[in-house]
Amino acid sequence: MAGEPQADCLFCKIVAGEVPATVVRETETTVAFRDINPQAPSHVLVIPKAHYADAADLAAGAPQLAADVLREAGQIAADEKVVESGYRVVFNTGAGAGQTVFHAHAHVLGGRGLQWPPG
Ligand code: 5GP
Ligand code: ZN
Predict the structure, then answer these.
(1) What is the C-alpha to C-alpha distance for residues 60 and 67, in angstroms, rounded to an integer?
(2) 98 lines ligand 1 (CB under 6 A)
(3) Along the 119 residues of the chain, how does pLDDT read in single tens digits?
(4) Architecture field, domain 10-110
(5) Which of 4, 76, 89, 118 is spaced 20 to 30 Å from 38 by Cα?
(6) What spacing in Å lies between the alpha carbon of 100 and ligand 1's midpoint?
(7) 38 touches ligand 1 (CB under 6 Å)
(8) Catalytic residue check, 51
């Protein structure tokens, strides 16, 4: 069922505390933790605690939760002090776009110059 934990999902396991992560912020509905393979000096993932496969599923199934993730992305940027220099919020969607974990997550990247368009 939409939003229910998935037994084989890495990020559901992080939410449950079954897989360790460097958590930097948590709310009632979201968790933010450092990416294990950072692509920028500041690289934090923001996820909804509930399981949705990608950002579009999240927005369709739980719009308030999608808003929570976006608000938290902004809060992370502020905490990481990258608002002034600029940062990027990315939702890779689909394997062809680099999505490897099918639990919706926002990458918050900053702390270096970010090229546009991304590769
Ligand atoms: P995607 O490729 O799906 O957009 O993003 C998944 C991200 O999760 C990748 O950037 C990858 O480095 C990160 N990741 C994969 N496994 C783990 C893990 O066990 N812990 C943490 N903190 N990040 C992970
Ligand atoms: Zn999940």
Answers:
(1) 11
(2) yes
(3) 689 999 999 999 999 999 999 999 999 999 999 999 999 999 999 999 999 999 999 999 999 999 999 999 999 999 999 999 999 999 999 999 999 999 999 999 999 999 999 98
(4) 2-Layer Sandwich (3.30)
(5) 4
(6) 7
(7) no
(8) no
